[in-house]
Amino acid sequence: MLGEVELFFLLFMAGLLVKVASGEYLIWLHKSLKNFLVYIGIPALLISTLLSSRRMGTEFVSAAAVTVISILAILGISILYHRLSMRKNGDVLLLLNTFPNAGFLGLPVCYILFKEPGMYYASIYVLFGTLIHYSIGVFVSTYLKNRSMNEGLDGIRRFPGFYTMVLVFLIAQLNPPVPQVFISALNLLGGVTITLAIFFIGLSITFESDVRVFFRDLIHVTTFRFVISPLIVLILCLYFRIDPDVLIVQSMMPPAIGNTIIAAYYGMNHGLAANVTSALTIGFMLGFFILVYLIPGLS
């Protein structure tokens, strides 16, 4: 019988095989899954987790503060680095450095590692990370690209995922009385979401050039995503005196798929975004699968 980890890896491989076999013929499947996950699945999972926990006090504020401060710190460090080094493709690298795939990949990983108790912090990270990603992140990256404040503001309006997370935030804060049948339906959607999200990750893998072409940028983003980001989260968690495990895992996810979409829409180097994101996602998946078997009790 397959365990959660084996199923996790097989779903990823199934998505990857479908992508390789079908090429662009099943682009409708990728788009349909993305729309379901962004507008229905992940919001349903976040709402059910946050409402079921009923923990909207100090713990919620502390986890939200760690998320917001850590992401803004990475964003600031990335901006400063690119201003000093004047590296090419600074707008794309800023997105890749700062915004992880905490939703599609982070939520399933946290569920496998920490089960239901870990989904609370994981959901908070996705909620506030997405709000920053599709507001400040879009604005800063488009401003660096075109030096136009109007285009930066326009970017926020054009990505409705931001408004979806605003709705989730309002529901979580208002904490309305919800019938149990509605919570059960959301929980069911959440379970489907975790399964489809892993398949979607495999389906999203794409390379537009040889790894050697973007190796330097790959190392650069790897340093930000897997070293600097979790280190900042650890320091903040110690300061706010909350358990760092889940937030650290979320903070070291590979770059979000949404970064490639933003880059393509605004004429940035979306090929670089796709290449780095795909390489780090494959590396993460293989590393995660191996570590789970090497370290007893990890899952």
Automatic annotation (TrEMBL):
Keywords: Cell membrane, Membrane, Transmembrane, Transmembrane helix, Transport. It comes from Candidatus Syntropharchaeum butanivorans. It is found in: Membrane. Pfam families: Mem_trans. GO terms for cellular component: membrane. This is AEC family transporter. Its main location: membrane. The chain crosses the membrane at residues 6-29, 36-54, 60-81, 93-114, 120-144, 156-175, 181-206, 218-242, 248-266, 273-295. GO terms for biological process: transmembrane transport. The keyword Membrane applies. It is a multi-pass membrane protein.
